[in-house]
Structures are given as structure tokens and as C-alpha cells.
Amino acid sequence: MTATTRRSVDAPDTPLATAPSADCTADSAGGLSFDIALPDVAERWDAALLLRLRNSDPEESVRLPLVPLSDGSDGTVLRATLPSTVPLAEGRWDAYLVFGEEEPRRLLPGCNDLRSLVDRVPRTDRTWLGVRIPYATKYGNLSVRSWLRWPHAEVGEIWPVDGGVTVRGRLYGAELAPDARLEARPRRAKAPTVTGPVTSTDGPGFTARLAYDELAREREAGEEWEVWLRPGADAEPVRVARILDDIADKHRILRYPAQPVAGGAGDEDGELWARPYYTGANDLSVRLERTPAAA
């Protein structure tokens, strides 16, 4: 049985040399299993894997019971299962091993089998989409990145050429109307929304383009612009992101070229450039950048 609780957990994030590790396996529906090899714990009925949502207030956690899976020379293998039917709030969940009321111990990442997450296609009859990707933190501990969305606009390809960016993707949980469009919104200011046309559709698939010069005209509103897809004039916008794969943090891995923006050169701050990028939440955005005039 899976239980959701709110409690205080005081455990360091720094990994210990003796900390146990968990092997993670993902299924195509979005569920995760955690296998932990531990000696001499076959009789412990109170073993659990604790997932704690980072920076949540009040603190939110999910406790998953650990049950014996097999016996071998290395001791008992315990398995905890996070079903796809259990929603996790969006964010980063830190993983701990806990016995009863003892102090939780931070888990280390083991071997991950995330092949089923690659090119995952959500069912169209659902009411929410849960995505969970285990990963190693900067301290070397095990955490799970979770998304909870519906509808969802998944990025397939990004082409930053000819003074703009072309986005190809698929929309899940909503239908594309003839007047569908991309929308760019400044991240930290209120300003007019910059729009771009959806140039073609194929069922849930879409191709859309956003011109950089439109962003340059509104650059006083900010340098970071979030990309949204509005399926139709009367529909709510959907954040454009890439989460249906096995990469928890694309911000540091996928980098796209910057292009000079028409009309953005010639001032004392240098030439203006635009670059598409993924945020820490794998959402698609565009950043306006300046380079020194000498460059």
C-alpha cells in the first residue's frame, strides 16, 4: 500500500560511504520500481523507501513499503514500487531508506533501466500525465524528477534558423484548431505576448515558428521568454516542454546555437542574439543575449 504523509525528515544530503544504493526500473506507463540489496533484513516488516519533495512547505513525502524480492549471496533484495496511478507533485523528490521510526538514510543511485521512457506515447483517455525520471544529484544521491501535466505539448525537434526558431511537436490532451499558435511570454514581467503561427498540423502533430525580431521589439520586458502553445483562440495555453524521454535535466545537456537578431545590433551594449534553451524543468524558452561589440 502506498501512503502519502506530511512529516519532518532531518537527514543530510551528503552521501555516506556506507549508504545503500537503489536500482531503478521504469515501465512504459510511468511507474518506477526501486530494488535495494540489503543483508539481514528479511524479517524487517517496517522497511520503506521514503520520497521527500524538496523545498515543500509543509513538507510532503510518500512512503513506499519495501518487500523481499529474492535471496542471494549478497543478501535480500527489497523492492519498492511507485505505481503510475499514484500522482507525484511536480518537483524533485529525494529518496531515503527508512526502518520504522529510525532516522532515514539517503540512498545512492544504482543501475537505471529507463528504456521504456524513450519515445513514450501517453494514452489519450487519461486525465493527467505523470512523468518520473530518477537521477543522481550533484552530491551523488538518488532523486526523482517528477512532472504532472495535462494537456501537454511535447517537443520533438527544434530548428533555430533564419532569424527564428521552428518547433515540431505533438499535443496530448487537447485538439489543435485552425487558429492554433505559439506564444512567447516574458518570464519576469507583464508585457504583450509575442505570437508565432502554427504552420502545419497532422493530427496531434504540429509545426510552429517564432520570429526573434518580435522578441527584440519587446526586449525591455525581459531577456527570458517562455514558449507556450495555444491550441485555439478559446483554449487555455499549454507549456511547451520535452519530458517524454529519460533525460531528467536537459538544461546542461542540450544546447542550441544562438542567432543574431535583426535590428538588435549597433547599441553600446553590443549585438543582440537569441537562443532557444530548456529550463531546469525541461520547459522550452528563448533567451536574448548580448555579446561584446568586439566579438
Automatic annotation (TrEMBL):
Residues 1-22, 184-203 are annotated as: Disordered. This is Transferase. The lineage of its organism: Bacteria, Bacillati, Actinomycetota, Actinomycetes, Kitasatosporales.
